[in-house]
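Researcher: We're reviewing a set of sequences before deciding which ones to prioritize for further study. For each one, I'd like a predicted 3D structure that I can look through quickly. This is Alpha/beta hydrolase. If possible, include the structure in token form so it fits the rest of the review sheet.
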Amino acid sequence: MPTVTSPDGTRIAYERHGDGPPLVLLHGGLTRRYWDPLVPRFADDHTVILPDRRGRGESGDGEDYSIEREVADARAVVEAVEGTPVLFGHSFGGLQAIEAARVAPVAGVVAYEPAYLVDDYRETADLAARMQARLDAGERREATKLHLREVLRDDIEDFDAWLDEWPVWPAPVDHVENTLRMNRALEAHPLPDAFDVDAPVLLLTGSEGPAHLRESVRAVHDALPESRLVEFEGVGHSGPTEAPERTAEAVREFLADLTPTPAR
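Model: Here's the predicted structure for Alpha/beta hydrolase, in token form for your review sheet.
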């Protein structure tokens, strides 16, 4: 599997599929496998690049963690691909894509509910502390459930029963420590008043996810100099896997509007 080395020495592994202008898919939770339903929808027309975030999948990890290091990882991937890529990120990967576009040349950005915390929700955010308390008690599954309920479905009374039907469960438990450190960093990471992003941005959201994420994507929309916002009716936070064809259609339309950029 190809790898790049991030500035702090961490090895970031990635897959490559297809041929054409580069499209880098940045996952949120779990690993690069999150994107499996979407890869065939783009690989005929694009070189699809799938990195694993640090500490997940086939990538290495560093002793110190920060959002800046995750952004540096994405930039290292951008600089390794041939051509100027479009970045497509989900959740934390959406934030990673937007932040990377501030420091690296990209042709465009797509972000599904990027994980910025805004307004009253950010002022009272304590998910990291609640997860830490569960981990300190040796309750890894319960710590993971706290995160998933916060970001997936906060409107379900019997969340345990819903999780039992969720195909991905209990795989997120394997990454709970990394998810905790991510949440701690996000709680300290403010949304800027304005983003210095030169590339066009497509923001995606669903009507059924947690309210704080729908508020966040609109705040990001307001802070960007050039962005388009599309909402999918009846879809939650995991829109790219809940509705892959609707997601792919919106992204393909956005990609078609971009001016092709020659390889570097």
